[in-house]
Amino acid sequence: METSKMTVKGKGFASAPPDAIAISLQLEGIKDTYELAMQHAALALEQVRETLLPLGFPKKEIRSTHFSIDSAYEHRNDFRGESKRYFLGYRYRNDLKITFGNDSKRLGEILLALSSCEADPEFSVYFYLKDRQAVEQALLEDAVRDAKEKARILAAASGVLLGKILAVDYDWGEIEVRSRVYAASSKMAYESAPMIDLEPEDISNSDTVTVVWEILNTQKG
């Protein structure tokens, strides 16, 4: 005899104050030759390192997440009005990242220092959670509680009894535990850094689980 089942999705919510900050920096430029692009990329990186070293970031803590040098082109109309592709040179891009504890005063000092860096980086500031496990556990617990409550209500409304749990399905996708709150170029930071006092909201997340219950029997009225 086929087992009767009830499938319910539960949604969980959790939030926590961020405990760390990440700054992503982008160094980019276009030079006439590949060699010049390489030289300027190296120079820009060294300028960033020199800027951040007094703030407690040795070379090993300034990580490159992406580096590339590619031919750069642009489309513009020639004297006949026809669109042509023109070679501009070689574009380099070096993406860097630094991380540190959630400290708004230190963040302001770092952004102020970057504002005077000759490399003129663009950057984004992210607040995030180092302890992912605690948030993930709270989400799952809340999602299962939600599924149980929904199943109880549905069973009572349908006049059936719930049996044992037959299956729990969770996709184990990555939970987002960061939020971007600031993005600017170093020139903008120069004007605004003395007034920066960022207090980010708690990082909120949600996730779902699917729970399958056995239906034991129909309740007698």
TrEMBL record:
GO terms for biological process: DNA damage response. It holds the Pfam family SIMPL. This is Oxidative stress defense protein.
